[in-house]
Amino acid sequence: MSLDRVFFAFVIVLALTLNVGFVIGELGNPAHHNVVELFFALVVSLLATVMKFGDRSPLGSAMLATSLVADVQLIAAAVCWGWYGAHTAALSEHQMATVVSLAIGAAVANVISVVLLMIEMANLRR
Fold it and tell me: DSSP letter string over 25-81?
């Protein structure tokens, strides 16, 4: 067992689970979504992206692309939340729905990344 591969898989799955944890709840209800969880989802997603830079295989390139998409989506969600929070006392239902929708896009990219990870792991056995 390679500890590097275990840590790599751990970070990728953690990025997905943190992202899903953030988006679960009513889409427009700010009480169902925690800004700290969005922050941790973004930090772990960025860490996962950095870890994927060394892989030069075609599957590795696809995994890097999915991570970059997730990062862009999560950064956009965080910027929107910061922007809305700076201009209003409390986020409206529409504003929160925008933030969560962006995070859902990142979750989709993270799901694809985990599927690609499983494909890569299955190919290593052969």
Answer: S-TT-GGGS-HHHHHHHHHHHHHHHHHHTT--SHHHHHHHHHHHHHHHHHHHHHHHH
